[in-house]
Structure to design on (410 residues):
DNA sequence: TATGTTAATGACCCGTGGGTCATCAACTCA
DNA sequence: TGAGTTGATGACCCACGGGTCATTAACATA
């Protein structure tokens, strides 16, 4: 008869549970993730999760907010504080976005689950769109306009859907999620290609 | 007491079931798709599905093969039979790919489910990679080489990962799957932007 | 019309997993 | 140190859905 040892850690629990949750979600997806497995990974009993999150759905919502929150806003700083050519700024922004979105296993996982389960979580989908996608698009738009204003970029680029510029990044994210085993992606090299083709596609001369 | 009317349609069943299956899969995803719903949509009883497909997994495999099969190979014809500038050919290839992949609800659905459930179907994932992705990449690579050989494209483009060129298309696909409700995508206009930026990014002068 | 064959049915079985709650133990404070 | 509070536990409950199979009815054949 071994004694059952319990630990009371009201403060630390939520974060521990979120960490365990995204780990399991990333491995097997939302539908295949069992609450019991998340609990096991967090080193607690299943019931404990329900002390902090009412349902599985709410736990997922917690995961999204926790791991997406810190990203937001950083991009904005870049563009206002930077002095230099628009070209340099664009290149820097793209690399930054790769680091934040493609380079983060957690954020790739969130994106993947929103792709698969998005219809069941419309509020999270629009949250993601509002906080990540449309911010990114706005940023691209702003940078392109700046480049045109400074005479570095062609004027026609203003008629291009800014999402096109972000496109290759999404592909890289998708690739790392599903094809990396069969054919690993060198993100560094890929990102260089992305910057290169965008720069050329956008600049005058 | 209404009579139960049964129809015997051994030949037509598999295709009817596959059609019902992809419809349901596209609406709710693999994990949330119930065999009973697929049966209902096909106008048959649940047990009937199992006369033609051993398991749910196998049914999904059938869906992928059925709706992906016809795509393959068409792209190849394009490049061998076409006489013209490499630039025209690239533009045409991109537009063609949009029509085939982004424009088809069924193929977007398959891609979405492979993203979410890919880990559970490694053989399907590698099938998709082999038959769709790496073909696309090879095609891009070939076209770029041709453009360089004909002196239309810059030589540096050969060092760019061809997947970058396909990237925006993947984004369009993802977008239509999850964000179209909150912010609908004009695929035509988006594709034009894609062609434009790639052409500029790739051509000399 | 009778008989055999087989496509089709749907009630049923049962493993699975989200969610509950009576019980317990860690900690507090008097 | 004893009573009260509350974080933690895990056995249990039960809805759900994949898969089965005895039964039924459509069609062929003679």
């Amino acid at each position: 008869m071994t004694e059952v040892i319990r630990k009371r850690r009201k403060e630390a629990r939520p974060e521990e549970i979120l960490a365990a949750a995204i780990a399991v979600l990333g491995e097997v997806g939302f539908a295949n993730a069992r609450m019991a497995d998340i609990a096991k990974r967090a080193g607690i009993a299943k019931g404990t999760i329900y002390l902090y999150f009412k349902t599985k759905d709410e736990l997922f919502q917690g995961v999204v907010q926790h791991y997406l929150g810190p990203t937001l806003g950083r991009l904005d700083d870049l563009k206002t504080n930077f002095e230099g050519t628009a070209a340099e700024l664009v290149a820097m922004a793209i690399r930054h976005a790769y680091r934040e979105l493609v380079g983060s296993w957690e954020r790739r996982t969130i994106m993947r689950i929103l792709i698969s389960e998005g219809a069941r979580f419309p509020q999270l989908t629009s949250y993601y769109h509002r906080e990540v996608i449309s911010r990114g698009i706005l940023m691209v738009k702003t940078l392109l306009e700046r480049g045109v204003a400074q005479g570095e970029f062609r004027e026609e680029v203003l008629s291009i859907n800014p999402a096109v510029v972000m496109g290759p990044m999404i592909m890289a994210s998708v690739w790392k999620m599903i094809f990396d085993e069969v054919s690993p992606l060198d993100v560094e090299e890929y990102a260089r290609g992305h910057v290169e083709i965008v720069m050329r596609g956008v600049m005058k001369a």
